[in-house]
Automatic annotation (TrEMBL):
Belongs to the peptidase M14 family. This is Peptidase M14 domain-containing protein. InterPro entries: At5g42320_M14_CPD, Peptidase_M14. GO terms for molecular function: metallocarboxypeptidase activity; zinc ion binding. Residues 16-49 form a coiled coil. Residues 99-380 form the Peptidase M14 domain.
Amino acid sequence: MKLFFFFPHSKTNSNRKKKYCKIKNLKKQNKLSEEEEEEQNERKKKRKSYCFIFLLPCLLQMGFRYFPLSLLFSFLQLLLIVNGRNLSESSSTPINQDLYHSSDALEEQIRDLVSRHPNKLRIETIKTQNQGYLAEISVVTYSHSNTEIDNKSKFRILLSFGQHGRELITTELALRLLSILSEEQRIPNSDPVFLNHTLDNLVIKVVPMENLNGRKLVEAGDLCERRNGRGVDLNRNWSVDWGKKEKDYDPYEENPGSGPFSEPETQIMRKISQSFDPHVWINVHSGMEALFMPYDHRNTTPHGLASHAMRSLLENLNDLHCQGRCLVGSGGGSVGYLAHGTATDYMYEIAKVPMTFTFEIYGDTDASSKDCFKMFNPTDTITFNRVLNDWCGAFFTIFKTAKWRLDETYSNASTENVGKLESIDEYLGGYLMERSSRYGKRTEVLELGMQEIRTYFRLFLLSSVLLMFMFCSRISKSKCPSIRPLV
């Protein structure tokens, strides 16, 4: 009897932990040499254990002839333990079914929640496909009014969860947030009357699970999968600086797709943002604790009033809900690597959303790079509930203060500019086109009017030149004597 063992090839995992391993190094620089030494020792142990793995078939054939089966396996296990490789210990933590819903169960819970509160919540499912690949995204809208006309006059917030399949905690946060909005659950130490008064003036769209196909792959056993159902990273598939590759680019994990918006999921999200026209966008991830603003593809933050409003809001959230643990700043400047083609940069640069953020709500920096579930998701009940409560509190702080901060920022700017004189050259040069409206949107009507003024001014100059030319030519003809031809 022959037994054959297959040992799958282990991919490199250095880039998998890239999101926050550089942050960990910033905090533990003095331990860098110790970590390198441990890594070298681990490689030596693996090389030794591989020698025994290659001998397994021979040992097994001999073992069935000369040794009892139980004694043989005990001997092999002892050899691997001595060499630092215990087969009885798994290198990855499985999904805790007691804490986390499956994707189907989560969708069912959300639909039941919406059906119980039709006066506040409504849900729609958007489907699209590309080259035979089908994707669908459910969108839940919270509003005290169900008419689109009323909603357009309110302050609008768009939240996206579950863009990467392995980040299960983000979808659980979406469910908890919707439960609080429907008043089936409460935030500890909160005033429900005050919250209701705040929410009266808001419309909130929640995408609980942006990457459903990728989530299915994770539930099937690939706990490290972050991409969609055909291997594209949805947070590299947007158009701002798409396709650019850094030195540490990982083609497996950061595949940007065949082109900007090649994936149905990003096409759906773009359509939602265009029709909803939000004032605040938040993309929720896990892997570390951070509060990021643009830019991801640069190591700087934007200039101007909107940047000041965003940073002040994030610093307030860090003090109130992160207890100072969260990194605050641009994604590209804070993490230590640049990301190109991200959703947040698109929302700020192209969609002109005044406040755009990426929230990183949890990360276990002590987890092995192979233990993806533990790296990106809390595994115990206490930490699980703490993360959900803290970040629900952060979201409600945004609901209460985001509009006020934008109003205050732009009203102060308007006050400072009162009485400032501008020359006609500046006026015609289009300086007024860069003025922002109440929530930072470009004043398209003013821009169109200025274009018409400049067009009419050019036509006036051209017609004046033509008239002068005609007038001068007539005068010159009248003064010149007529010359008869010779006979």
